[in-house]
Amino acid sequence: MDRQEKIRILQDVIQIQSPNGNEEIVALYYKNLLEAYGIDARIIPYSDGRANLVAEIHGQDQGKILAVSGHMDVVDAGNADLWDFPPYAAEIHDGLIYGRGTTDMKAGLTALIIAMIELKASDEPFKGTVRLLATVGEEVGMMRAEQLTQMGFTQDITGMLIAEPTKPFYHTKHKGSIQYQVIAHGRAAHSSTPDKGINAILLINEFINKTNAKMAAATKLAYNDTLGATLNVFTMIAGGNQINSVPEATILSGNARTVPEVGNDVVIGIFNEAIDSINAKGQGSLALNILQNNQFADGANDSDLVASILAVDPDAENRGLSAATDGAIFTDVDNDFDFVIYGPGDMADAHTINEAIGVDEYLEFIARYGAIYRSYLNE
After folding, report:
1. What is 3-174+296-378's CATH topology?
2. Which of 368, 344, 370 is nearest to 102 (CA)?
3. Taking the domains of the chain in order of start, what are their residue ranges?
4. CATH number of the domain at 176-294, please?
5. What would the DSSP string read from start to end of 44-63?
6. pTM metric for this prediction
7. Enzyme catalytic residues
8. Mean pLDDT for each 10-residue chunk of the chain (379 residues)?
């Protein structure tokens, strides 16, 4: 496969619009690509228009099983008029491919797949198995990684490489993630007689103040040397339906990023303590709705997979990752395997306007992944 073909494949995938949906078309594209090179691939449906993809290549002898993974969904492109180039055109300018999902993470996933194809096509002897796990819905909920985990695809592996953007680092650990809503129920009234109502926005405001104080106290007591501190960010609020009425309902959304020392149970406990103290007053009520509750991922710093990565990228540094990945789900099994996140692109460019990936960096990672496969499986 020549340089231009590799670039064209990535452009094709970027041009498939898959913002938190429509991933089945991406999966079918990859399936056809793999099968054109003699690699069987299996579509695993999740819901209408959404499907995971699993494929394997096998060496001449049994050995390690290396799972390689990336997600096929992207976040919404937002206002396309704010982009310098159309977000799904995959145009190349000054050595960069522009488009939603280039960095997060179609470049990394495509590089993993092309490296599999090239290893298969080379007829070079190797041991063991490379298993592709391409997922849907990582950006919202990670439920599709859970589907593959429940089907046993990580129960027998010896290592997992996730191609999220990490430049210039690699990550063996990342924070947990809690996505949640707090729903406030008050009582509507005319704004000229607010004492007749219960203001749901003020209930949420009280929750925010109580939670911030409790979170600050908890995080002062514990800090993870690799991952840092547990964080909680309130990200969306919606309340009221008319400017001259006391709002009877408000929904607050948030995302917490957790470390082992102040973990998911501790943070959810803080939320519930604040809610209980407010509800005890009998003036309106709050309810907690947990949308996603993923634990942190914790891989070994000195694994064989780390050694294989350092062999091709000796200057890479191991850093903790604040963002969550499908690894939080995949590693939640009774199987202790090597785990590393390593891929092209900078996480700071993910979800941004004018998201882009360097063409040469993408191509370099195809070669790096091929070398990692050979090193890890044959050592």
Report:
1. Aminopeptidase (3.40.630)
2. 344
3. 3-174+296-378, 176-294
4. 3.30.70.360
5. EEEETTEEEEEEEEE-SEEE
6. 0.88
7. 73, 138
8. 97 95 94 97 93 96 96 94 97 98 97 98 94 88 79 97 95 94 97 97 98 94 88 96 96 95 96 98 97 89 97 95 88 93 94 97 98 95
